[in-house]
């Protein structure tokens, strides 16, 4: 498997991650872990490719396999978001393909950037001079 020397997600995928890494599920081509921060909602997991691919656009075949695995995890929730990013301008901070599966509930207060909730939050901040 192709790995990058200083990639934390490559180390985790190879079973050499930090001791606090919680592996939720494993497959030959991917691994699902709990975010180190605990995530943004209960049940939030990251599905990582086992090979180093910098983002979802770099290798469509690997991305498709990871999406299948993320969909398997997502099937266990009545409502969830499936989120990945490509590039810093799209909020990517770890440059190893990963997909967030974020369980959702009504009124969970977790807005997406393009939702009315987020627009209202931004408007409140602007009114308070906190932009």
Distance linking N and C termini: 44 Å
Which architecture does the CATH hierarchy give at level 2? 2-Layer Sandwich
Q: State the low-pLDDT regions, or none.
A: none
Going across the biggest sheet, name each strand in turn.
1-2-3-5-4
Principal-axis shape equals: globular
What's the helix count? 3
The class by helix and strand makeup works out as: alpha+beta
Architecture overview:
The protein has 131 residues and is α+β, with helices and mostly antiparallel strands. The chain has a single domain, classed as HIT family, subunit A (2-Layer Sandwich), CATH 3.30.428.10. Helix content is 25%, strand content 18%. Strands 1-2-3-5-4 form a five-stranded antiparallel beta sheet. It starts with 7 loop residues before the first helix and ends with a helix. The mean pLDDT is 89.
Chart the SSEs and their pairings.
Elements (H helix, E strand, L loop, with lengths): L7 H6 L9 E4 L3 E4 L11 E5 L10 H15 L5 E4 L14 E6 L12 H12 L4
Highlighted features:
131 residues, alpha+beta, HIT family, subunit A, five-stranded antiparallel β-sheet, 25% helix, globular
What's a concise summary of this model?
The chain has 131 residues and is an alpha+beta fold. The protein has helices at residues 8-13, 60-74, 116-127; strands spanning 23-26, 30-33, 45-49, 80-83, 98-103. It has a 5-stranded antiparallel sheet.
């Amino acid at each position: 498997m192709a790995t990058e020397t200083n990639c934390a997600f490559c180390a985790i995928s190879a079973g050499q991650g930090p001791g606090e890494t919680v592996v939720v599920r494993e497959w030959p081509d991917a691994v699902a872990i709990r975010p180190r921060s605990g995530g943004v909602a209960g049940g939030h997991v990251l599905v990582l490719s086992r090979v180093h691919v910098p983002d979802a656009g770099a290798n469509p075949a690997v991305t498709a396999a990871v999406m299948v695995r993320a969909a398997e995890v997502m099937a266990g929730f009545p409502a969830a978001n499936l989120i990945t990013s490509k590039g810093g301008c799209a909020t990517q901070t770890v440059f190893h393909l990963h997909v967030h599966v974020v369980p959702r509930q009504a009124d969970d207060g977790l807005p997406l950037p393009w939702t009315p909730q987020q627009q209202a939050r931004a408007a409140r901040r602007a009114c308070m001079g906190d932009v």
